[in-house]
Design a protein that fits this description.
Blueprint: H1 3-15, E1 19-27, E2 33-38, H2 41-54, H3 63-69, E3 74-83, H4 90-114
Antiparallel strand pairs: 1-2, 1-3
Length: 125
């Protein structure tokens, strides 16, 4: 590959849309959720798929349940995607994701109370 082709590939990579969001690891046996945010949803999905294939726990807070129920009991659920704006800094994007995460935690907590749940966000408890 020549230098020009490499430069074009790098430019294309840097111009790609950056998509983050709020997601949850759901234990399908217990219904518990671990709700998190990420500036890179695609990377998070890849990490989760790799963890399931290798049966290595994807997050410290899930270790006990991962051992008890196995990797197959878990799924990754994207709750909301957020596309980074062209003029937005990484710091601003992460801040927006933090706010979105808090909104989702509040929403899920309210929903849990309405349905008779414990009012916790699962593993975050």
């Amino acid at each position: 590959m020549d230098k020009q082709s490499k430069k074009e590939m790098i430019r294309a990579y840097l111009r790609r849309p950056v998509v983050g969001g709020v997601y949850a690891y759901r234990n399908n046996r217990t219904g518990e959720l671990l709700v998190l945010s990420t500036p890179n949803l695609e990377g998070t999905k890849n990490q989760f798929d790799f963890s399931r294939q290798t049966e290595s726990c994807v997050h410290m807070k899930l270790q006990d349940a991962w051992r008890e129920y196995g990797a197959g009991a878990f799924e990754l659920v994207v709750l909301e995607e957020l596309k980074k704006k062209e003029d937005q800094t990484d710091r601003e994007f992460r801040k927006d994701l933090e706010v979105l995460l808090e909104l989702w935690k509040g929403k899920l907590e309210d929903e849990s109370r309405r349905t008779g749940g414990e009012g916790k966000d699962g593993y975050c408890g």
